[in-house]
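Help! Submission page says 'invalid entity' but I think these are all valid:
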Amino acid sequence: MVFPVGAVVAVVVIALRAASAASKNKDGTPTPAAAPVPVSRGSSSFAQDTGAAGTLLYQLLLLGGVSAGLGLGVALGNPLAFGPGALALYLLFPAWTGRVVFVPLGLARLAYLSGWLSRVAWRRDKPGGPALLAAWALVHQARPSAASIAWVEGKLTSSKRAVQGSGVVAFGLLEAAKGNLEGARAWLQSVALFDPRVAPTQVRRVAAEWLATDAAATGDWPRVKALTRDRAWPPSATLTLLGALADRLNGEPLPTNAGLTLWWLFAPRRLWSRRFVNEVSARAPQKRAREQGLPSPPQGLDGPARATFLTLALQARPRPTASAVVAVARTWEAALGDDLRAQLHARAQLNGGGEPEDAMHEVRTLLEQALGPLLPAKLEGVSGELPPLVEAAVVARKDALFADLEERMNRMDARKLDQRELPAFEEWREVMTLRRVYLESCALGSEGDRSLAFSILRDKLVNYGAWLYNQRLERPIANAVFRLLEAEAVALGDDESARLNKKNAGCDL
Amino acid sequence: MSEKSLFLGIDLGTTNSAAAVFDGTQVHLVRTPQGTTLTPSIVRLDAKGSVTVGAKARRLLDLDPDNTRGEFKRLMGTGQALDFPAAKRQLKPEQLAAEVLKSLRADVQEQFGLAPARAVISVPALFELPQSSATSEAARLAGFERVELIQEPIASALAAGWTTHNAAGSWMVFDLGGGTFDASLLETRDGLLRVIGHDGDNFLGGRDFDHVLVDFVLETLSATQGVRLARADPALAAGLRKLKLAVEDAKIELTREKATSVLVPALQLGAHVLDVDVTLTRDDVTRLCTPLVDRSIAVCVRLLRHHGLDPGQLSRLVLVGGPTVMPVLRQRLQDLLGVTLADGLDPMTLVAQGAALYAASAGLDARPAPKLEEQGRRIWLQYPAMTSDLSPHVVGRLVEEPGPKPVSIQLERHDGWKSAEAPFNEEGAFVLAVDVEPRKPNEFTLRGKTADGKAIALKPSKFSIVQGLTLNDPPLSRTLGVAMANDRVNTYFERGAPLPARRTFRHETVEALVKGQQESVLRIPIVQGEYDHAHLCRLVGALEVRGDQLDATLPAGSQVELTLELDRGGRLSARAMIVSTTQVFEEIAQLLVPEATPEALHGGLQATRDRVTQLRTAAFRHGLTRHIEQLGQVEQTLGEVERDIGAARGGDTDAAQKAKRGLLEIDATLDQLDGDSKFPELEEEAVSAVSWASSLVSRFASPQEQRLFDEAVAGVEKARRARQVHELQRRLRQVRQLGNAAYYRHPDAWPEQFEHAASNLSSMTDLPKAEKLVADGRAAMARGDTTTIKRVTEQLWRLAPADARERQQGHNSSLR
Amino acid sequence: MVPGLFERIAQNPFYVLGLAPTASRTELEREGSKLLSMLQLGFKDALTYRSPLGEHPRTEEAVRAAMAELRDPKRRLVHELLAALPASQTVPAAPQAAPELKWPRAPRVFGYGPKREG
């Protein structure tokens, strides 16, 4: 006779779930305030840990099941008799099994089930945790079916519970599964903004490792290094190995080959990574090739023709340097001179109309708008005074960025006032986009730009966060909003805003 | 049936319509059975449902005004149906226009022996898409297979240009209609006609000239007969109609005589019955009408100046419209603009003649049946039916079919001139340049040769090209674009763009569109107008995508590829593709002139008045005399708008539309004035905000906050020096924000805010609760309990009505 | 999203019509109407045009718009300035990022997805 492990486990799981549900809903915690019109409301707390005693009892029961099952298997000598023992073992370590078995095999639904059964790493977030495992499994498939992606996405978006870090990572991995790597990067990067209480180490590690392997795949080793240095991400053997490889490929003398081998030994999946690590070890440390200059225009091109040639060449570069942009602008400044004016004047006479000055002005405007986006965020390595075209391009770019930031913030604010709610993941996406535009505005780097950009978000974004917290009950993402505002306010010395956001960020999750 | 091509042009006018036919050499006017060239645009429907059009219908306008309708052109595109109680039917404006077109079509058939299938119809220069598409619809209803539209001033210039040789230089078309005035500046160079610009006055027309004369007669009557009569009095309407007719007759008589009498015996004017006998002299008319004429001339001068021209540089002035026959107007035009008037042109039919000429340049042969059945190898030919070029290209291609093939081709003109001999290339195609004789039709014969040098018959064997002044493609009358969420317009086609046209742009959505949510809507408003701001342009259609039609949720910033397409008749189609899912949406939600209710118009009028007052105050403060002057003009126009709104209340839809346009134009003027005076205003604001915040920050802020504030003030200064409006506005907000933070640390701040909130008690959303809070607050004030005051004030704020929202200006667009 | 400099260059009317910026009014009209005729009859030669940014499809709408743009002397002057570079003059493509630095198998190696393409 076989011991009914399954039935016993089921009963225990149900009992513990009931116990955990009963311990929810405690009132009277402080709530976030908005500025300048603060909001407060009675609130409920939803995520409480199950009692430690319950977990222990559950685990002991399963352990008993495992030993009984294994014993039975050995005693009967029948391989089938190991079944119940293996099941109990799986139930004892479901997330681990999911991670090492189902995820690499790309079995999304089984991975989801494993996450759902887990009581350890994913306990604070369902369906985010299980969905993370499922999405991770999908990422392993060469061509995941739209149906399975939709299935996992459905699990995530149909949930009434607040979005947490694991949900965000799951959403990001789904983007990767869909082939939208740019989107996946943004989502996974954003999990660093969450409070560790709602984005545990295991969850962050998945995000960090994905980001680092993605950067390695594209050859962006400085970014790999930056990821391993960032305190927002937990340490991991994989990250350490990638960081070491990055050092070598970025031209650092350390680590030595021995060091590299050591990190390789610590990291998982050594067989797979051996060849690449050997290749890097064999390569002498080298500085990265400097960016090549623009191609020289063919003979006989001068004035606007030459300047146009250089502009088109510049535009073809993936990331032109500031000095290259400035050089092209100078060519234009020289071309748009008196000679051209006289030439255009003659043409206008021949054509029966047209204003040389207007035409040159229009071309200048077009150039300003075209050069702005080509300029790197910071103008480094430029000698001498900036040509007026670049000056104007910088102003135009700043104006465009700030106008964009204002428009987005105002829209978000208007939506909040109209109570036009978006699904929680879309709300978070809006925050991510706003943050991206904010960072771009700050990156302009001239004196006072960062505080000006912050002044645009300062009050409206707190209000939005308070709305997410109080009305939408999306506390983890609201908390992330407060945290990022607090960090900025502290960095800028805006004591008033820092105080308010610190208080808000301290509210219960 | 005629062997020659015939090209039909129709002027579908507000009061009169006319048609003309061009046969390649000459323009012939189409005559009605009564022998006149004008068909009154009036339609009558009797109890049996039979339709009467034109002069016969006009005679019944007075006897049976309920079943006889005129001036329906103004309602084109509004979708508003007109009642014919006797027949118990309702007809849309385009159905009525179709009746007029049918009548003209019948006249053409009578005179030329063929029912025309294709034609060109003229539309006012500023017709919008819904109006244009209603005109095309009318033509379809009237039995035309294909029509193209041309703007009236272009048609007039084309007709005027056709009749004169060496018509190079700048022209002006002065079109004074019954209710509106349009001036168009055109240019001819190298035989091509080009529109340079338009201007006009929507509130000036022949009717205004009649009104001043009627007013004069009424004043004289009041003075001599001791009765008080006002034109605005609705009780006088029937009598005034009669009086107006008498005045019109007198006006016409005065073009020949020095003086005449307005005679209406026993005229019933409301409660009074009067024998009207008022003497009207030519001097009276000159004195009364000169201000109106000057208004129109001012528009012309403005148009010329805008394009950098002086009146002296005009080579010709073409007059169009009935009222332009007035001697006072002609004299004054010559005096003030110093330009010779184009002679020998009939202002009443010039537009129709131009439309016929345009039909030729568009190759729109009116003959319905295919040409005579010919024998020979079939060939597709492309050539300009009418061209200004003296050596245009003829392009052809053999139709794929079995049988002997020509290897080369030559074109021979009717007078024996021969083109080069061109071989057919591997695609079976050829390109040949031909010489044409200026200003006449040139007939060419196709001569094909086979490989062995034998002649081979080709089908068609002949074609003809007319050389003369042309206009290649029908131009778009108003700039068409898509309104963006920030109230800007993304222009797709500029005014004057050649039709047909198609253009695609990529936009981004500004808000997330959630799959499955019906209330989540992506709105793409399509607007027409010459302004950068969408709210000043007119909404002519909209494409809407609802969440429940979507394949996937679209986050904000999703790309949408939008294609707008206009066919030669000006019909619009739009296609939006969601780039990420390649889902396509094509249905345009509306294509009607938006309705204008008198209430909404009145609201708009009030708002505009308030704005004028504000701007006037600002203008006085900054001593901007030019602004004060312009505001004076705006106020005058506002008076006219108000009158139109009054008429709109009485059910005059046309007046409502006119008022709406008027308000939009005023809005545009005010926006411009606003922009001009913005910077000094803003600077002033900045100075006062900085001084207000400085004292608060220095007293109540931390050193770090003080540093932040100093940075902001430096930013204000920098933006002021560089005159960067947006940057200054942003800096100003930052300064206020920091000042505010400091303000709330002031011990009096919360009591002050409490008092302010308490003073708005009556507008609170939950009055009993608010009253209780105010009582609590008062008690706390007495105790000096700041914490409670703060808590109470914050709670009061929450009871205040939701923040006033900015006007949804950009036609509620979801794109950027 | 007003067309920027690069769109303006790619869609320059002179390139669309295949003419030099010095072409006369008559030449423009003649070439334009010839191209329209050729497009209507589906001539292969007429289906594309060159700009320094490469080969682009030529449509009837584009030809018509190009003719209209060049009829206005004011607009024409700007187009002349933007068509200074002959259409035949293509710009060399930018060098690609160093391929030896890429490790497309990295996600596969550490369990984060399949090997990346190119």
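Support: the input was valid. A stray whitespace character was the problem, and the output above is from the cleaned input. The radius of gyration of chain C is 21 Å.
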